[in-house]
Amino acid sequence: MPEIDTDWERSVGAVIMRGDKVLLVRHTYGAGAGMLIIPGGYVKHGETPQDAVVREVMEETGITVRPDRLAGIRFNMKDWYAVFTAEYISGEARSDGDENSEAVWVYIPDIALKKDVPDLTKKIVESVVSADKNGGGLYRAIPYKGRENNGEYSFYSF
User: Fold this and answer.
1) Is residue 129 a part of any domain in this protein?
2) Is residue 61 part of a domain?
3) Could you tell me the residue range of the domain that residue 41 belongs to?
């Protein structure tokens, strides 16, 4: 059932790392059905992006997080998608039984090799890991291949 509270033009995602693993969820619908992606979702009207990250991660995975920094953003004329790094606080990863069929901690080096991880998720995780190692920098465009219409898009990250 669609929520009247939801701002369909603003969405967020979170890169949550624990040691050498990152939390991913297996999406159950749309163009990303069956794919492992970072948890996230739409912002509600009157909600900050940071609050949306906390809420979405809890709803989708049962994990409590604290947003850390803005890792990157994708935007166009109709919407935007902001990705944060988030500190793991507590909880056991589990599926929400609706939007995803599983929530799993994936070994970071394996992400680049997995066929069930879309290009954008790979680029986001790679960018966050690289920024953590190199101390960040200026935002730059990171091209990725979209699943819809074989489009070329850019995600802006450190």
Assistant:
1) no
2) yes
3) 6-116
> How many domains are contained in the chain?
1
What's the burial of 70, exposed, middle or buried (CB within 10 Å: 0-12/13-18/19+)?
Answer: middle
pTM of the model as a whole: 0.85
- Of 36, 14, 43, 3, residue with least CA distance to 114: 36
Asked, for residue 51, whether it belongs to a domain, the answer is yes
Over residues 88-131, the pLDDT tens digits come to 999 999 999 999 999 999 999 999 999 999 999 999 999 899 87
CATH code at position 96 = 3.90.79.10
Joined together, the tokens standing for residue 76 give: 């166009």
User: For residue 52, which phi and psi values (nearest 5 degrees)?
Assistant: -65, -40
Distance between first and last Cα of the chain: 37
Torsion on CA atoms 65, 67, 71, 77, rounded to nearest 10? 100
In a domain, 39, yes or no: yes
Is residue 94 classed exposed, middle or buried when 0-12, 13-18 and 19+ CB atoms within 10 A define those classes?
middle
Residues in the chain: 158
Which residue reads 């599926």 in tokens? 95
